[in-house]
Design brief:
Layout lengths: L2 H21 E8 L6 H20 L7 E8 L4 H13 L4 E4 L3 H14 L2 E4 L6 H4 L9 E3 L4 H15 L5 E5 L3 H16 L4 E6 L8 H9 L4 E5 L2 H13 L5 E4 L7 H6 L7 E4 L10 H9 L8 H18 L4 H10 L2 E3 L2 E3 L13 E6 L2 E4 L2
Parallel strand pairs: 1-2, 1-3, 3-4, 4-5, 6-7, 6-8, 8-9, 9-10
Antiparallel strand pairs: 10-13, 11-12, 13-14
Helix pairs in contact: 2-12, 3-4, 6-7, 12-13
Length: about 375
């Protein structure tokens, strides 16, 4: 090949690469893709991949195709910051993440500094938005509820349904677990209840015999767990092994089939708070069908991750740009049509969606009971 032909080919290749780079908009999701909470990471990946596929099939965003990056933070705060920096280096303009509040909160500082919009589908700790970087000018949002909302619902339920019973509260010391337990305990006590016990436990342990024995000796009727499905499942199983009929109650971190895989029939009667089932929303029908037809899960935070991407895409179209400030302004002012229903954000970045309801685990699945 002579030099002029080679130069022409190189130039064409360079223009092609430049065109491809221009034609793509890189966005991301991040959560626990590995580790004991990986089932939630899989929910997020599934929702994100479906959203990107559907948006691209409809023409993309601003005429450009979306490319999805997936980050694994294993619900570890330090790893989450590393992931956030990695995404900034990859040119990501939007993050649908993270899952754990303990990851989203430190990562949000990086996204703010780097001009990356963040919408968490799952992080419920109030500090994510109450203390978001940039305050009213920040670019951190969520499409899920908050622990103080979830705790208020749980506390009211405890007072209404377990009056006169002994209620214990335990938490795993994480931003999510402690925040949720504290919010529920506060609501319970404000409604006239008195906590019979309040303790912390260590996440990742397999043997909760000492804790369960203490609960048994105290005659605890209801155990509220601020934490995740793995530890809650082990606790309820070990309570049943000791002949206890104590009701286990927890929050939205039990919305995974893995909970029943851990507990089996011991998990029957477990109560948990979660938002009204998004699968029942008319806007979600086609997405749910597509996922189920493909043999993919629709549980938990699949549709919340889908909605986070959907919402950002609509804001970018409204803004006519993926620029941080332009999209942020559109998010602050707009109403968005999502698989969760119509939604908008308040001045802190919290979403205007229905609050929390109760579900009960029976026969391997959870069903809404109020």
């Amino acid at each position: 090949m002579n030099k002029s032909i080679f130069a022409g080919v190189a130039l064409a290749a360079g223009l092609s690469m430049a065109s491809a780079a221009y034609a793509d908009i890189t966005i991301a999701t991040a959560g626990p893709m590995t580790g004991q909470y990986a089932s939630f990471g899989e929910q997020m990946r599934t929702g994100a991949e479906q959203a990107v596929a559907d948006i691209n099939a409809a023409g993309g965003v601003l005429g450009q195709q979306l490319v999805l990056e997936v980050g694994d933070d294993a619900c570890d705060p330090k790893q989450a910051v590393a992931v956030a920096n990695q995404m900034a280096g990859a040119g990501v303009v939007f993050m649908a993440g993270h899952f754990c509040s303990g990851s989203s909160i430190p990562a949000s500082a990086v996204y703010s500094e780097e001009g990356i919009i963040q919408i968490s589908p799952a992080s419920t700790n109030p500090k994510l938005t109450d203390e978001r970087p940039g305050g009213a000018d920040g670019g951190t949002y969520r499409v899920c509820g908050r622990d103080d909302q979830q705790g208020a619902a749980a506390g009211a339920y405890l007072n209404a349904n377990f009056a006169g019973k002994k209620v214990a509260f335990v938490h795993d010391k994480t931003a999510y677990g402690k925040g949720l337990a504290d919010a529920t305990k506060s609501s319970y006590e404000a409604g006239g209840g008195t906590a019979a016990m309040y303790e912390a436990y260590t996440a990742g342990e397999k043997d909760y015999t000492a804790l369960v024995t203490k609960l048994k000796q105290a005659g605890i009727d209801v155990l509220y767990v601020g934490g995740y499905h793995t530890e809650a499942g082990l606790m309820v199983r070990q309570m049943r092994d000791q002949g206890m009929n104590t009701v286990l109650m927890s929050g939205d971190a039990l919305v995974t089939d893995e909970y029943w895989a851990i507990t089996g029939e011991a998990g029957a009667g477990t109560l948990m708070t979660f938002s009204p089932n998004p699968e029942n929303n008319p806007n979600a029908v086609n997405v749910v069908k597509a996922l189920k037809d493909a043999g993919k899960t629709t549980e938990g935070y699949v549709l919340y991750t889908y909605a986070a991407i959907q919402t950002w895409a609509q804001a970018a179209e409204t803004a006519g740009s993926t620029d941080y400030d332009a999209v942020r302004a559109a998010l602050n002012a707009g109403d968005f049509n999502s698989v969760l229903g119509s939604l908008a954000f308040d001045g802190k970045g919290d979403v205007s969606l229905p609050g929390y309801v109760f579900y009960e685990w029976q026969n391997g699945k959870y069903t809404q009971i109020n």
